[in-house]
From TrEMBL:
Pfam family membership, one: EPSP_synthase
Record-level Gene Ontology MF annotations: 3-phosphoshikimate 1-carboxyvinyltransferase activity
Keywords linked to the UniProt accession: Amino-acid biosynthesis, Aromatic amino acid biosynthesis, Cytoplasm, Transferase
Pathway of action: Metabolic intermediate biosynthesis; chorismate biosynthesis; chorismate from D-erythrose 4-phosphate and phosphoenolpyruvate: step 6/7
Alphabetized CDD domains for the sequence: EPSP_synthase
Protein name per UniProt: 3-phosphoshikimate 1-carboxyvinyltransferase
NCBIfam families per record: aroA
Thylakoid among keywords: no
The organism's taxonomic lineage, starting at the top: Archaea, Methanobacteriati, Methanobacteriota, Stenosarchaea group, Halobacteria
Organism: Haloarchaeobius amylolyticus
Length: 432
């Protein structure tokens, strides 16, 4: 699907979609349990990949009309799947499920689409091998397809922290049901640390004790997954909140606001987007008690933003920088290159088609707002949901129409994204 946007002013109230990060973890945590109910789950392409994996491991998932998931789990010991686990485009699914596969008493094969088959899995495979499982890349390059044979028993393992925090999440979730537990020593500083905080929060809500240590993280073995009252509710997603928040900051109608509901505080590092937009000069009011954010437009100024812990915000920040006066410098960004696409280069190149001047370094991206003149253009979404949504924001204020090719990939995390823009008053046209 291609989407063409006409420059528009926005106003109104929207609700944040549920968190993708929390949904992935809660579906798998419920899979590790005997049974659990997950409420307010995000049902997107990525989270459905995790749900399919849980079912291949022997669980059963019933999705009710209100979106609630009733999950009969595999009770800590996944069965050997009868088929290959296709993780599609979901890196979170692949990493979390790879560790779960190492618990099965047999062999599991995991693969994904072309993009996912280019993403690094080597450190996780090495860690699982050190813990007693057999784990290898069929092409011996640390990338999917992966073949994992268990069961692993647990122990102590060292792993780099600067490639993906999802490795740590995967090991902690699996470690709770091993005999020995797992202690993780970090070889480097941890990037995207708030995502591990999310994991610790979800584990605690499912009755599992995992903790930070002097050297990294640890989880005791022999534990059971069981949320209080048998239920878990997924909070709103701040990665997705970044888009209506930025839309209000750059395109709110005069004397109007964009209100975002469902923005309750949590461990999500991407809640930093509220402060970032405010620092750039927008008028932002976040009522944490009610979970509402009101934002109105203003003249934005470029700032410096460190995305070490918030890599998913880089595309949104790049678009904000394209509209702002002065330079916006995004630092500590090298790990953002290992997402669905190289998001540093993707934003530089696609915004460049729209007249935006940027300077790209290996670990940073500078957007020269004052030297840029946003113009409508035909751009590629790069099969990446966050690139698509960030470019759509740019289309709100570009001079002329902006067409985004391959825009249907927003289904990965925000299936109703373009519906939301229309609710806010954006003029757009979809073409298959």
């Amino acid at each position: 699907m291609n989407v063409t946007l006409t420059p528009s002013r926005v106003a109104g109230t929207v609700r944040a979609p549920p968190s993708k990060s929390y949904t992935h973890r809660s579906i798998l945590a419920a899979g590790y349990s005997g049974e659990a109910t997950v409420r307010d789950a995000l049902w997107s392409a990525d989270t459905q990949a995790t749900a399919r994996a849980v079912e291949l491991f022997g669980g059963d998932i019933d999705r009710r009309d209100d979106g609630t998931l009733e999950i009969d789990g595999f009770d800590g010991r996944p069965a050997v799947p009868a088929d290959v686990i296709d993780c599609a485009n979901s890196g979170t699914t692949m990493r979390l499920v790879t560790a779960a596969a190492a618990l099965a008493d047999g062999t599991t094969v995991l693969t994904g689409d072309e993009s996912l088959r280019s993403r690094p899995q080597g450190p996780l495979l090495e860690a699982l091998a050190d813990l007693g499982a057999e784990a290898e890349s069929t092409r011996r390059n640390g990338q999917a397809p992966l073949v994992v044979t268990g069961p692993l028993t647990g122990g102590t393992v060292s792993i780099p922290g600067d490639v993906s925090s999802q490795y740590i999440t995967a090991l902690l979730m699996a470690g709770a049901v091993t005999d020995e537990g797992i202690a993780i020593d970090l070889e480097t500083d941890l990037k995207s640390a708030p995502y591990v905080d999310i994991t610790l929060e979800v584990l605690a809500d499912f009755g599992v004790d995992a903790r930070k240590t002097d050297d990294g993280f640890a989880v005791d073995g022999g534990q059971s997954y069981a949320p209080a009252g048998g239920e878990y509710a997924v909070p709103g997603d701040f990665s997705s909140i970044s888009y209506p928040l930025a839309a209000g900051a750059i395109a709110a109608a005069e004397d109007e606001t964009v209100r975002i509901e469902g923005a309750h505080p949590s461990a999500q590092g991407d809640s930093a987007i509220v402060e970032i937009v405010e620092r750039m000069g927008a008028d932002v009011d976040w009522d944490r008690d009610t979970g509402t954010i009101d934002v109105s437009g203003a003249s934005l100024e470029g700032i410096e933003v460190d995305v070490e812990d918030t890599p998913d915000l880089l595309p949104t920040i790049a678009t904000l920088g394209a509209v702002a006066d002065g330079d916006t410098l995004v630092t500590n960004a090298e790990h953002v290159r290992y997402k669905e696409t190289d998001r540093v280069s993707a934003m530089a190149e696609e915004l460049g088609k729209m007249g935006v001047e940027t300077t790209e370094e290996r670990d940073s991206l500078t957007i020269h707002g004052s030297a840029s003149e946003l113009e409508g253009a035909t751009v590629s979404g790069r099969d990446d949901h966050r690139i698509i949504m960030a470019l759509a924001l740019a289309g709100l204020v570009a001079d002329g129409e902006t067409t985004i090719k391959g825009a249907d990939h927003v289904d990965v995390s925000f299936p109703g994204f373009f519906d939301m823009l229309e609710e806010l008053g954006v003029a757009l046209e979809r073409r298959e």
